[in-house]
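We modelled each protein-ligand pair independently. The example shown here corresponds to the NAP entry; the chain sequence is given first, followed by the ligand as SMILES.
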Amino acid sequence: MSLKNWRFQTVLWNTKNLGGSVKNRMQSATPTITLRLNVRISVGLLAMFLLKAWRSTAFGVYGYLNFTKSGFLGHSKNFNPEDMSTRIDGKNCIVTGANSGIGYATAHGLASRGATVYIVCRNKERGEAALSEIQSTTGNQNVHLEICDLSSVNDIQSFSSRFKAKEIPIHVLVNNAGLLENSRVTTSEGYELNFAVNVLGTYGITELMLPLLEKSQPDARVITVSSGGMYTAPLTTDLQFKGEKFDGVEQYARNKRVQVALTEKWAEKYSNKGIGFYTMHPGWAETPGVTKSLPSFSKSLEGKLRTSEEGADTVIWLALQPKEKLVSGGFYFDRAEVPKHLAFAATKSSHDAIDSIVATLDSFGNFSI
Ligand SMILES: NC(=O)c1ccc[n+]([C@@H]2O[C@H](COP(=O)([O-])OP(=O)(O)OC[C@H]3O[C@@H](n4cnc5c(N)ncnc54)[C@H](OP(=O)(O)O)[C@@H]3O)[C@@H](O)[C@H]2O)c1
């Protein structure tokens, strides 16, 4: 938070040259400086500053202890190896943003267990390279490339009509594509870029894939890769960070909070469709995205970050578990359901805003099924 609103009202430097007796004069040979500082700050502003400071500190400490590689290694002592031994031959999975990082590791993990995997990438060359790497290293030829720029509503709609024409059931949709853009970038359709990919793209593709997901009920599931960064942000209806000095990290955290609240909403709204909705966060993994967007963070935690495979572990776990074991609308980390809010962070009640957010997202595109 900027401190620009703090008003340093009066700064009074008062140098006294004391008079009086010789003795007194000798005692006060050093001049005294009296500094009087009057600071006026509104109680609301101070409370918000302290709340934000608390959220960031709690997140930093909790993250350092849990989200790093050592956190993964600690948590993995409780993992059941059998959970990951399930084969999913014949199941159709979509993984967005699968040409690098966690998305690539997820697509690879699903393909190695026999699934038919559709990798959705925005760049043909990067997509083709990932496709051939996954096919050759898993021996699974049922991996297919779909091109779609998830920052574009038009592109999502045309991808969706193309894909729906296949008329196949979708068992697993992994909403992984995401980014943290530090400066304000506006897409050709007029949306702030982080919001366009992380929120509108995730919302659009999920809504449009519902008919195909329904075809595989009761086993269908949507897994959205959120971020622990969302712990620092309440849900806000200011989806495109208007009216404030742009802060990419804050916008990313807000986007990731929307994904968690949206997942709760979907679980409730579509509870009769046989589709499970889950969000998870991967911890802190060293990926091309993190290196590019958070270079100092990445450098300062060099050697301590998770691998992409460790980041993808819970995504794959969620795809493989019997649905009875999972809570639709839940938020997962390291193969367990975890709280959506940090203690005393005052983010819980903000989720009430989700209906108005959904209405806004619907107004941005024709996503109705
Ligand atoms: N790594 C972490 O520590 C961490 C922590 C919390 C959450 N996450 C989340 O994990 C997910 C994967 O991130 P990552 O760390 O693996 O980063 P990454 O290596 O940069 O992967 C992001 C993927 O999303 C794709 N993507 C970005 N914009 C897109 C668009 N407009 N249309 C289609 N695809 C697009 C990227 O494609 P290009 O290669 O073409 O850019 C890439 O394939 C993200 O949702 C991220 O927020 C990561």
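Residues 1-23 have pLDDT under 50 and may be disordered.
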